[in-house]
Amino acid sequence: MIHSLFLINCSGDIFLEKHWKSVVSQSVCDYFFEAQEKAADVENVPPVISTPHHYLISIYRDKLFFVSVIQTEVPPLFVIEFLHRVADTFQDYFGECSEAAIKDNVVIVYELLEEMLDNGFPLATESNILKELIKPPTILRSVVNSITGSSNVGDTLPTGQLSNIPWRRAGVKYTNNEAYFDVVEEIDAIIDKSGSTVFAEIQGVIDACIKLSGMPDLSLSFMNPRLLDDVSFHPCIRFKRWESERILSFIPPDGNFRLISYRVSSQNLVAIPVYVKHSISFKENSSCGRFDITIGPKQNMGKTIEGITVTVHMPKVVLNMNLTTTQGSYTFDPVTKVLTWDVGKITPQKLPSLKGLVNLQSGAPKPEENPSLNIQFKIQQLAISGLKVNRLDMYGEKYKPFKGVKYVTKAGKFQVYY
Amino acid sequence: MSAAPAYSEDKGGSAGPGEPEYGHDPASGGIFSSDYKRHDDLKEMLDTNKDSLKLEAMKRIVAMIARGKNASDLFPAVVKNVACKNIEVKKLVYVYLVRYAEEQQDLALLSISTFQRGLKDPNQLIRASALRVLSSIRVPIIVPIMMLAIKEAASDMSPYVRKTAAHAIPKLYSLDSDQKDQLIEVIEKLLADKTTLVAGSVVMAFEEVCPERIDLIHKNYRKLCNLLIDVEEWGQVVIISMLTRYARTQFLSPTQNESLLEENAEKAFYGSEEDEAKGAGSEETAAAAPARKPYIMDPDHRLLLRNTKPLLQSRSAAVVMAVAQLYFHLAPKAEVGVIAKALVRLLRSHSEVQYVVLQNVATMSIKRRGMFEPYLKSFYIRSTDPTQIKILKLEVLTNLANETNIPTVLREFQTYIRSMDKDFVAATIQAIGRCATNIGRVRDTCLNGLVQLLSNRDELVVAESVVVIKKLLQMQPAQHGEIIKHLAKLTDNIQVPMARASILWLIGEYCEHVPRIAPDVLRKMAKSFTAEEDIVKLQVINLAAKLYLTNSKQTKLLTQYVLSLAKYDQNYDIRDRARFTRQLIVPSEQGGALSRHAKKLFLAPKPAPVLESSFKDRDHFQLGSLSHLLNAKATGYQELPDWPEEAPDPSVRNVEEEDLSLIETHVGLLGEYTEVPEWTKCSNREKRKEKEKPFYSDSEGESGPTESADSDPESESESDSKSSSESGSGESSSESDNEDQDEDEEKGRGSESEQSEEDGKRKTKKKVPEGKGEASSSDEDSDSSSSTSESEMTSESEEEQLEPASWRRKTPPSSKRAPATKEISLLDLEDFTPPSVQPVSPPAIVSTSLAADLEGLTLTDSTLVPSLLSPVSRVGRQELLHRVAGEGLVVDYTFSRQPFSGDPHMVSVHIHFSNSSDTPIKGLHVGTPKLPAGISIQEFPEIESLAPGESATAVMGINFCDSTQAANFQLCTQTRQFYVSIQPPVGELMAPVFMSENEFKKEQGKLMGMNEITEKLMLPDTCRSDHVVVQKVTATANLGRVPCGTSDEYRFAGRTLTSGSLVLLTLDARQAGAAQLTVNSEKMVIGTMLVKDVIQALTQ
Fold this sequence. Notes:
Chain A is an alpha+beta fold. Helices cover 17% and strands 42% of the residues of chain A.
């Protein structure tokens, strides 16, 4: 299936290669570079490229390209999904998935890649199993290892590999048994220029951090499970229980993982926590324009909205912007023409606004296209869909775990048209 | 160790002094010398007997390999360490060996004996890794050893080793394909393996070695289907795509009948998305074409569809896509719809995933447009999307556009045209063109919109518009003389060659519509001829020729001038064309044969171009495959076979019974609910009993309100947080504090959303034609009932069947109530939609220009119409028996709120039966009910026979004895009995009474103290008008309104059905949404529950 993997940084250096079958020359990447050049923009490099003898399937993650070489028919999503899993694993092991981290830990990376694929077919991809096979690097361990010559590699087969619950390692022990759940919801919305919602949808995830000893069997129930319109599960969740009772019943992996991700459909209309008033106007035959944004809370459920950032891609003819803001700070990058306004918190008494002049290239006609606004915000302790965790029960272990649920609402792809 | 300091320095980075050739001129000899020296270091380190040094050396060598540098000269030094005791060194040596063994085959042989020893190791990990490395060394001479090792490992005790053996098979096959026959034997053996660990890997091997040996699958088919859910994700993808191919060879097409009556099938598809057994579509067609044998799906085919469906909820995009393609290729039309939701979900994923999914959606949306129509908005484009994603989304939007949604789509396109991304704008214009050709009704609108774009400042936009306009005009040129004139004017300004060429062609083609302008254009073009681009020049010649034929008087000289210019052009194409044209049109002495037909040749009516999606017919490739994505056959692609005419013998899949039962026990955590460890079940059941006790003792009417509140989820969460604070956590208790706060907040929001829901409903009512409205509502309906329907899975035995039912009963009423609200509102939609509703928007809107459309959007959104909900039971139609559990019999019930004629103490329940199977259901009646004390049932008269597709309604009365206990009874047909239960919401246990305000107050005075329950609440903004409050209360409980003097007070009265006790409800609304709810009733339990339900209804 997957023949080889090349890791390429932004400047086009191939800094790691791994082959699972016969060696494929680096020159195969030339086709990739060609496509990259054509695309102009990193995001527009086609994920699948056909070359005379191979197919290249690539992903772009954290400023790195993961380019895999394929020789025969394979579902492209299979490869893409796997590459992302590789990047996730690096992230998990080294805290970041960057060129420096990979270069520093090249041996561990190699060992990981060796375990994750056998002859191009995925072998062990669960992080719990990998961590038993290859221990993640810590400062202490590397010091100890360099002195004693012991290694990061486990010498027994992780029991998870053989059991029906391959995602959990055995013999987990904690002195403090804790289970935390983060309900994170993101609002995806398109708001048109009059302020009405064209499209809105809530995308939520429940991320769990489970540090429980032994083999706990958890069940998590919701006050209003019917809200969840479309759910995708971590493999640990018993599907039948959900189907029949709407309870999430599972033996969790150890550590951090994504329990479910869900969508609350646009049928239950989504509350939009902020509103934006904005205008941009250019005078005919003048190299000047007026620009004005005000942002205010709308359906915020009485919570403070914080971390508000407004990003506007201005038309190309805009030279500079002279603005004054009542709150926060703004920057305008004259090269990329991106205006970023970091607002911070909204207090309803005084609505933050940003207004001023836009300078255009002299002589250029007034721009026809209108910029659109992208808004970021965050509301703590609120799940905007109204989803609430009812309770968490644990079976199979005697101790009393420490439980906690946190709710956060964020803006996802939140866009306002002019 | 003299070398030690040297490498301890460069430990940190791999780019240390250990690799000095970086930055050196490759031609200088320095490389080699330093290379040798460094390798000497390494060799020395490898030769020591200190593991730490060996490890260090190996790490550096691996780092070299990783950077793609040659380390092959170290082979002898490294290979010696293959027997090293240190496991990490060993592993790194393996890495090295696998990389270089192919190049140094002789030396590699030295290591073989170590692996052979490893294969016999008692540790399974070592056995497995020995086999892994042995099979990865691509040295042909050891093929027999590999073969032997694989055979042995295939019958190893450890499933992990067997899995490794499965992985080794394709490796050996690629090394020596002569071993195929022997390998197939091993595959056959491993296919019979019953562990999930092996299944994925062996199917992978099967696909690579012998995908044509479909016969090997027969015996394992059912096992694979059953194991599927527990196989790891990667294996699932491979197995699903293999089974897709298998099913195409073994089963009959589920759509073979449907295709005869495309129309009907399409309709059925909307109606029954969750169809389990057989779509209504096939019934209809079966009825329409009685001559054909009715199609009955092979149970194995059904098994595959059923077992893959849950995987649509996998976290892995690859698995979801695999199931989606399986459904697309194998499922009856009526069932394919289920995949849409999951695919739409993937659009939130990484952009690469989006790219692949959108390609597939684009293909699917051509064939099954209806499937994605409800998700139209999910394909709306954001300015932050990469261009390649934008263009794919545009493709999907265009495919989804139809008569009904076109105004919305066009309005959206209008926004895109103002985007800054010019490639995308051009694609949008193309898309508008396609919409215009496909949907005749909006052609004029689009054309007008495009003409407006001609005054755009951006030339690319204008050029693209011209090209598209040209195509559109070809469809009905007669009416568009004006536009052609407008275009002719543009020739002065527009510079983009393609656009100029298009304009010239148009003028030439329709010169009879613009007889005055055409010669003038030619004059201008003749002037600038030499400066034009090639395609423009060709079109100038073309124009000249056409004008010469139609209007030779005016243009004869001009034409000759142009032709002479062209004769000396640099481009041979143009010279050629000029020569050819001249011969054709200018009559000469000889060879006049052709010029007589010149008019016919040049001015023949040309068929209008058909603007088609580039994704048309891509579905002959298996969806989700690489070949589909590239639209070309990839190496190793297995064609998806056509359905067979006659089904092959299904008995080949039969396996010994005991075999199957063995497998069943292996089905793990994800699969069977019955697999939940015994203790979980017990404790759950106990708890349930505890909880139920107070709940059910209500019927005696004496238990206190606090007790019955036990089932309240709120108090549960309270006790929950208490228990956690007991465990000494400060944080979690504060957490729960927050939660409480949240709750208040949430109430406010809830009502908001309800209001907006209505809003949305109104919108749909306006825009959606009846068919679609029904689709989405029934869609929702079936969704919400899925929890009950799934109980079928476990209902193998009677005992088990009872269990899920009681589980359901356990769910606190509040959580059950919430979705019910949703349900009713959606159902109502159906009732309210008048049958003759206009599709989407009246044509008047359509014919206005695009700009007007854009304005229109805001108008329709902001107008508010008062809601029209009638005070019927909030609990809508509920499912009593799902079609699968009922083997085709669907039973729903509603509380009609009409007095039951037989017995005034009974609640009348309307039961709707419909038969969706294909055999008549006979003798429907109620079997011996097992009822708790006090509850009685008045059965409905036996329904003698229910023909397929028919439905019937019967009324039965149930005396619930003023409790919310469920009435369990049996529903019998001639052949089967179904256990069903009806649980009434508390609001249905009463009937309205009418009284005056004074009477009310008097009665209320009698029911004070213990009998009064008061609760404070906040009315959300949306719920402050009289109408809404009254409607919500009456929807929740069957009470009658009592006239009331003050405006802020609402009174309702009713009597419980059995005992006739009064139930008085007062809602006192105060300032700013604060309100107080009072219920006075002798039946305190009913009172408490009613308060809870009403508050919930009001605040959500």
